[in-house]
Specification:
Elements: E1 7-11, H1 16-32, E2 37-41, H2 47-51, E3 58-60, H3 67-81, E4 85-88, H4 93-101, E5 108-111, E6 118-119, H5 130-140, H6 160-164, E7 181-185, H7 199-211, E8 215-218, H8 225-232, E9 239-240, H9 247-256, E10 259-263, H10 266-273, E11 278-282, H11 288-291, E12 297-301, H12 310-320
Parallel strand pairs: 1-2, 1-4, 2-3, 4-5, 5-6, 7-8, 7-10, 8-9, 10-11, 11-12
């Protein structure tokens, strides 16, 4: 059936951590439709990452149109494209609205919108980790018959395509070997402060690690530079890269890091997917069984992250460090 499909649309709108996890399903869609023209419908923050991704032939970024004119234009363009199949990996009210806007003759649609042709009707879908849920959705769609859907069984995303495009580092001069570094991701959504471990706790952890021979590299958005400065009060030598790393650079930093430690936020998912041994910190605001990064990952959770002791995080760090 997939051999007759020439034009495919994939929908993934946000957020970064979810987008990173969805890359595993995106790869499977490309493998199932090798000769198809595949377009990704997303939003502006993910444009550069998506355009560098080998799974898509085209990227469109108006997946959250504003106003009636925006919706009418999106509807007009999607109808004109005459897609043979749509994979809705967002499965939200927003993406369902896109589906309903294409009635009465929508394309063959894989998602959870009521009335779609390839509906993911598993009643447990909302209790599945994103990786297994996407695998199961593609199983329902008929392109992954042996999809791994047991908890913990689906493969993590593969970011080797990002790493392969990065220039090789210059050779070390003077015979001095750089110190290994630990990547800190202390930020997160500005409206979800309950998902952040305190900056002072990161600072205390950083001081211990620096004294053990590791450099500390802090990443995040420009709005998190104040958090980086708070960490530098404990570790003056910590490198503050907040606001100075795009998604590709974060992946490269993760691939080369001795360890990554951070909150449940997108850049940490990216570092973990790139291969960094990772300690991820969850509050009760999120369920790691549904959304934790996969790979060489230790998950710590506390109802209030302020109550998560530095010593407990250090134990997890020691278990992952060589």
């Amino acid at each position: 059936m997939s051999g007759q499909i020439r034009k495919v649309l994939v929908i993934k709108l946000s957020a970064l951590g979810d987008f990173v996890l969805a890359l595993a399903a995106m790869r499977k869609i490309r493998e199932a439709h090798r000769k198809a023209h595949i377009t990704l419908l997303t939003t502006p923050p993910f444009e550069a990452l998506a355009r560098s991704c080998p799974y898509f032939n085209a990227v469109e970024i108006d997946g959250r149109p504003e106003g009636l004119s925006g919706w009418l234009e999106l509807r007009r363009r999607l109808k004109a494209a005459r897609y043979d199949r749509v994979y809705d990996l967002q499965t939200s009210a927003q993406s369902a609205r896109i589906f309903y806007s294409l009635w009465p003759f929508p394309p063959e649609w894989s998602g959870n919108a009521f009335g779609c042709a390839l509906r993911h009707a598993n009643p447990d879908r909302d209790r599945m980790h994103t990786l297994e849920r996407h695998a199961d959705q593609l199983k329902y769609a008929g392109i992954w018959p042996d999809a791994p859907t047991e908890p913990g069984s689906a493969p993590p995303p593969d970011l080797s395509w990002i790493l392969a495009r990065q220039p090789k580092p210059p050779p070390v001069s003077g015979g001095v070997t750089p110190r290994p570094y630990v990547l800190f991701v202390p930020g997160g959504s500005a409206h979800r402060l309950d998902k952040r471990w305190p900056a002072d706790h990161f600072g205390q952890l950083g001081r211990t690690l620096y004294d053990r021979g590791f450099d500390i590299v802090i990443i995040g958005g420009p709005q998190e530079s104040a958090v980086a400065r708070a960490i530098q009060k404990h570790v003056g030598q910590a490198r503050d890269l907040t606001g100075r790393t795009d998604f590709a650079r974060i992946a490269v930093l993760g691939a080369k890091a001795a360890l990554a430690v951070g909150n449940d936020t997108g850049p940490l998912h990216l570092a973990a997917a790139a291969g960094a041994p990772t300690v991820v910190l969850f509050s009760k605001a999120s369920d790691p069984a549904l959304s934790a990064p996969r790979g060489h990952v230790a998950v710590l959770q506390a109802d209030r992250l302020a109550d998560l002791a530095v010593s407990e995080v250090m134990q997890a760090v020691n278990a992952l460090l060589p």
